[in-house]
Amino acid sequence: MAYDSSKIEDFKNVWVFCEQRQGVMMPTTFELISEGRKLADELGVDLCGILLGDNVDGIAAELGGYGADKVLVYNSPLLKDYTTDAYTKVICDAVEEFKPEVMIFGASNIGRDLAPRCAARLHTGLCADCTHLDIDLNGYIEFLKTGSSLDVEHMSFESKLFDVNKNLKMTRPAFGGHLMATIVCPRFRPAMATVRPGVMKKRPFDEAGTKKVVIEHPAFQLAESDIKTQVLEVVKATKKLVDLIGADVIVSVGAGIGKDVEKGIALAEELAAVLGGVVGASRAAVDAGYITADHQVGQTGKTVHPKIYIALGISGAIQHKAGMQDSECIIAVNKNEAAPIFEVADYGIVGDLFKVVPEMIESFKAVKEAK
Q: pTM of the prediction?
């Protein structure tokens, strides 16, 4: 039977593209498997990882620990290094053979290159750089209540064109992060999305899952003639960028440091150093040129889940709150007592950050010295 992406009744199960590099699984993969488990449970189907590489069987079982029911492994020397042609062919052939209804990729350099090529070849839609995914309509409505300013109680979620409760609802920033758009792909399958790294929460690892997961090696065809490029050498370049996603403590600065930018950043850096953390920023601070974009937290920056998040002079626009509101403990310092950031803060300090932060630094130093 010929492949037809419009025959949606033929498609079943949730797939996750499991990105590895030089035989090492990328951390985003575990986030996506965890999210894929939620989606598969909402649909009542299996979760399958698709893993491409050369002799990568040894890292496949770990995916079961984060919720995968099955892993399809495609081994070939031609898949050792990523090339668009090879990976696109193998994945598209697999999709045409097994017909998943949902497929998600990480929005990494590879995912951003691979997913649109696959979507175009498979004649289906792709929503890029998603920050939230839902199948269940009630879960989506709850997300809107806490993650948007919409009057959800007076909205209609019915459609005469498709079953709202069976379609993947893909939410992503639009218009530079000023709006959030939710997109569905009701007429074609698989529904495809790339997901921003750090957005989805990784499930606790379950050792029992590694023993239950099914590892399969489907037959496939791939020849050198299918690949139009050749990787001659892999060169790793190092660039010092702040690791917001992996940080336990983040001290972020906002437009409030504007009266003395150099001092404001210096205070944030000193406070972060005392707490063993890193410096983040709001979009307003980045757009104003106070700090570089790799520090940005929010819908158009990075989504973070640190143990402690300290917001200095950040008003708390909904785009920023969406990127940090799941932090374990939020401390906000702002001279405007009505600032929205206080709505999500566990501890709020109303005052001038240039006066408050030095006192915070001395207090934390004293506590550390007392230990």
A: 0.75
